[in-house]
């Protein structure tokens, strides 16, 4: 007995170490306008949107494991999940994904807590829900990033909601750092509205205070349909508007299906010479075949909703079981991705040029863009009240956020009583860079 007890401990330690090692996966971080693995190699996502079940597809380990196997065959290294239940156990699915080198991009909101274009507000209930998802997923090294919103703004009249999205990002970033979580990038997934996109994109990245900028911007774009081209599709405009952008940008949804079968030729542009220096890859919509007909795999033919079965059925589509590739779309995407592997730039090289990154000008109010970049972001609990424009409107508005001013301490986070950012907001970027470099050197040394 006396001997077997320590042996038992030793065994479990060894076993624990083996298990831990098995799930070791490098984290992803955003530096400048790019994502990097810990080893300094640039990360380009080949992703798919994965929402088998409306509330949480990451709790059925057996199902995740079956899907992950086929995802690996497809060449996937990232998934996007729109809705999760933060109180559920995600360990099994996250480990299955990690073992396959697959990263998670997860939305923080629910249908009840998403920021609304029609009634812009950002309150405690929403913030608490966003926190709960971050609390749950920050522990997994393969959580790549989080979204504070998906297509909140869908019309050019909706721009008043933009500051509320940015306020949510600010509060989540402050919360993340206060909790000393790793710097999981916080971003937004935008609808592709031509008359809104350039302004929105720049607004989210224009403020001097890094807490008032997104860590990345992503676009749901379905501009390239069938045998199109870089210029015909309009990707050249996307590229033009994104070149020089200071934070990572990528396609958080793509894969137009109006010209079947889908050939995914846009991937050659995204991962090719024209765009790969600016864009970090794409997430193809979507994994499961359902009514909208975007699926890459199917779990069986559509079923009568009334049919009794052990399989999970929703909207007449089975959402569980053995995934079968939808042909030829699945194979078309697989062949595209197989040939596309941009090397990008090594972090050690890239870091030398990040000093030269400049922020875009905050868009000035115009027709279709009503946001005054000089007014403070909404505070937690604030609700949008449309103001009647007058000659003096905005005169009394706080002007502590002059775009691109070199203010170092002008921004206060006075509204976040519960969280303190003292000392965080004022970290010099140079200091951050050296810390990063040191960690990189340390990491390399660790391997040698
Ligand atoms: C860094 O890690 C990635 C992902 O595992 C791998 O593809 C890449 O080859 C590694 N780079 C170096 C320089 O070892
Ligand atoms: C916050 O807004 C949501 C709707 O988005 C509402 O359901 C909730 O009651 C609000 N919470 C507070 C504290 O006002
Ligand atoms: C975006 O690109 C279009 C087309 O080239 C151009 O007209 C527009 O000014 C650009 N907007 C921004 C903010 O870069
Ligand atoms: C914002 O404030 C600055 C400095 O006061 C001013 O130059 C600029 O015109 C203002 N921008 C807008 C859009 O009002």
From TrEMBL:
Q: Determine the domain of life of the protein's source.
A: Eukaryota
Q: Where is the composition biased (Polar residues)?
A: 380-390, 398-411
List the GO molecular function terms. 1,3-beta-glucanosyltransferase activity
EC number, UniProt record: 2.4.1.-
Top EC class for this record: transferase
- Check the record and name the SUPFAM superfamilies matching this protein: (Trans)glycosidases
* Recorded topology in the membrane: Lipid-anchor; GPI-anchor
Question: Region Disordered: start and end of each range?
Answer: 380-411
What Pfam families has UniProt attached to this entry?
Glyco_hydro_72
Gene Ontology cellular component annotations, sorted alphabetically? plasma membrane; side of membrane
UniProt keyword Glycoprotein, yes or no: yes
Q: Which family does it belong to?
A: Belongs to the glycosyl hydrolase 72 family.
Per the entry, what this protein does is: Splits internally a 1,3-beta-glucan molecule and transfers the newly generated reducing end (the donor) to the non-reducing end of another 1,3-beta-glucan molecule (the acceptor) forming a 1,3-beta linkage, resulting in the elongation of 1,3-beta-glucan chains in the cell wall. Involved in cell wall morphogenesis.
Q: Which PANTHER family match?
A: 1,3-BETA-GLUCANOSYLTRANSFERASE GAS1, 1,3-BETA-GLUCANOSYLTRANSFERASE GAS2
Protein name as it appears in the record: 1,3-beta-glucanosyltransferase
Organism, scientific name: Aspergillus sclerotialis
């Amino acid at each position: 007995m006396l001997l077997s007890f320590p042996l038992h401990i030793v065994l479990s330690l060894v076993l624990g170490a083996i298990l831990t090692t098995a799930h070791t996966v490098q984290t992803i971080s955003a530096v400048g306008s790019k994502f990097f693995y810990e080893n300094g190699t640039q990360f380009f996502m080949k992703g798919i949107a994965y929402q088998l079940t409306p509330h949480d597809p990451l709790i059925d380990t057996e199902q995740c494991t079956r899907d992950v196997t086929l995802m690996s065959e497809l060449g996937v290294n990232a998934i996007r999940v729109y809705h999760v239940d933060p109180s559920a156990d995600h360990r099994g699915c996250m480990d299955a994904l990690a073992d396959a080198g697959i990263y998670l991009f997860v939305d923080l909101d629910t249908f009840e807590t998403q920021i609304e274009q029609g009634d812009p507000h950002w309150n405690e209930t929403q913030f608490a829900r966003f926190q709960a998802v971050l609390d749950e997923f920050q522990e997994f090294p393969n959580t790549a990033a989080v979204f504070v919103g998906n297509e909140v703004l869908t019309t050019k009249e909706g721009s008043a909601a933009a500051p509320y999205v940015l306020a949510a990002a600010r509060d989540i970033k402050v919360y993340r750092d206060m909790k000393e979580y790793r710097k999981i990038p916080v971003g937004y997934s935008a609808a592709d509205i031509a008359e809104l996109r350039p302004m929105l994109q720049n607004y989210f990245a224009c403020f001097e205070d890094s807490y008032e900028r997104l860590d990345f911007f992503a676009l749901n774009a379905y501009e390239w349909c069938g045998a199109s081209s870089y210029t015909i599709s309009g990707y050249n405009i996307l590229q033009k508007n994104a070149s020089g952008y200071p934070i990572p940008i990528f396609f958080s949804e793509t894969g137009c299906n109006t010209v079947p079968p889908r050939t995914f030729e846009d991937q050659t542009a995204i991962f090719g010479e024209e765009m790969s220096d600016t864009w970090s890859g794409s997430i193809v919509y979507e994994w499961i075949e359902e009514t909208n007909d975007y699926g890459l795999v199917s779990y069986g033919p559509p079923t009568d909703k009334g049919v009794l079965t052990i399989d999970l059925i929703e909207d007449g589509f089975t959402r569980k079981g053995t995934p079968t590739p939808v042909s030829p779309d699945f194979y078309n995407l697989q062949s595209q991705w197989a040939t596309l592997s941009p090397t990008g730039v090594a972090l050690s090289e890239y870091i030398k040029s990040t000093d030269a990154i400049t922020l875009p000008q905050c868009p000035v109010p115009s027709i279709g863009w009503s946001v005054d970049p000089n007014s403070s972001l909404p505070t937690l609990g604030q609700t949008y009240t449309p103001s009647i424009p007058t000659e003096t409107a905005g005169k009394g508005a706080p002007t502590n956020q002059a775009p691109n001013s070199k203010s170092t301490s002008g921004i206060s986070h006075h509204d976040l009583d519960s969280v303190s950012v003292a000392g965080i907001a004022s970290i010099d970027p140079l200091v951050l860079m050296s810390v990063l470099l040191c960690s990189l050197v340390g990491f390399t040394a660790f391997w040698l």
